[in-house]
UniProtKB/TrEMBL annotation:
InterPro entries: Bact_Solute-Bind_Prot2, Peripla_BP_I, SBP_2_dom. The lineage of its organism: Bacteria, Pseudomonadati, Pseudomonadota, Alphaproteobacteria, Hyphomicrobiales. Residues 40-284 form the Periplasmic binding protein domain. It comes from the Bacteria. The keyword Signal applies. Transmembrane segments: none annotated. One of its GO terms (cellular component) is outer membrane-bounded periplasmic space. It is found in: Periplasm. This is Simple sugar transport system substrate-binding protein.
Length: 314
């Protein structure tokens, strides 16, 4: 199904202007928020905060769960939500095509199911809220090329927490569209979801391959947020190796401000969860969402303080 995409702020304005807030947010209903991520990943605390705030604001209950990249567990969580008669479900996509069947089951049960954070066009979700990972990947690669930080024949290292997961696959697709025609090569390495292990693996890889790495693209928030600690451990100075990637954590906003990371991607994590649940509530009130909401902005040092303040607020 073709849907129009609108920006986050336009979505909020439209929602308020349409007056669906008072009718769609009927109190006392139970929604399910299901993530492929890890509660140990700092960015997911912000996604989770958006879901909790939505529950407080609307008086509805939101059951939340993390599945650490375990696809069968996430599939069963969606099925459990369907069996429980959820008013609506919002879920990320752990792997491309992995939720096609359970989404069909939600559709058959007439339960709205909204995709957020990581899109999967193969599945019949009612709508999507979040970033366009393919575009993000393209923009990271194009940034490095446009800024003359990489050139034909160079090698770029791309650490990721979960190899093969939707977000990294889609990001690589966008990166490939820029790098392949320029004969720029790259390698994606497994860094895991454990912070200590990430630092160890990244430090070991950088030590072994330092002379050939011309730039780094962090395909996830945990790896990009670990750049300073890895560089300091290996003895790489800020700016010595160009870095772009995700930027939804205070670690990364500080890395941009101090020159360890050149540019980072903001995805509006709290707002993404909030709007995904809002769309589920809207659909539950028989107002079909005819659009997706696309979030995100690539920021450099001059804008990093804006996001640092957002992420540091209590």
């Amino acid at each position: 199904m073709l849907r129009k995409a609108i920006t986050l702020f336009a979505a909020i304005f439209i929602a308020a202007g349409a007056g669906f807030i008072s009718t769609a947010y009927a109190q006392g209903k139970t929604y399910y928020w299901i993530s492929h991520g890890s509660p140990a990943d700092p960015v997911w605390t912000y996604f989770l905060a958006g879901a909790k705030l939505w529950a407080e604001d609307t008086g509805n209950k939101v059951n939340t769960s993390f599945h650490n990249g375990d696809v069968p567990a996430q599939q069963e969580a969606v099925r459990a939500a369907i069996s429980a008669g959820a008013a609506g479900i919002v879920t990320t996509s752990p792997d491309p095509g992995s939720l096609v069947q359970v989404v069909k089951e939600a559709n058959a049960a007439k339960i709205p199911i909204i995709n957020f954070n990581t899109p999967d066009p193969q599945a019949g979700f009612n709508a999507y809220v979040g970033g366009d990972n393919k575009t993000f990947g393209h923009n990271w690669a194009q940034y490095l090329v446009d800024k003359k930080l990489v050139k034909s024949g160079d090698f770029v290292w791309m650490p990721v927490e979960v190899p093969g997961a939707t977000y990294g696959v889609q990001e690589e697709e966008g990166i490939s569209s820029v790098f392949k025609p320029l004969n720029i090569t790259w390698e994606i390495t497994d860094s895991t979801l454990d912070q200590a292990e990430i630092i160890t693996r990244m430090s070991d890889y950088l030590t072994a391959n330092r002379t050939k790495i011309k730039a780094i693209i962090g395909l996830g928030d945990l790896v990009t947020g670990s750049i300073k600690r890895v560089f300091d451990q290996v003895g790489v100075k800020p700016g010595e190796i160009p870095v772009v990637g995700w930027g939804n954590s205070p670690d990364t906003t500080q890395e941009v401000l101090t020159g360890y990371v050149n540019a980072a991607q903001w995805q509006d994590p709290q707002a993404t969860s909030y709007m995904a649940l809002s769309m589920a509530a809207m659909a539950a009130s028989k107002i079909p969402p005819g659009f997706n909401i696309i979030t995100g902005a690539l920021y450099e040092k001059d804008k990093a303080e804006i996001y640092d303040k957002i992420l540091s607020s209590k």
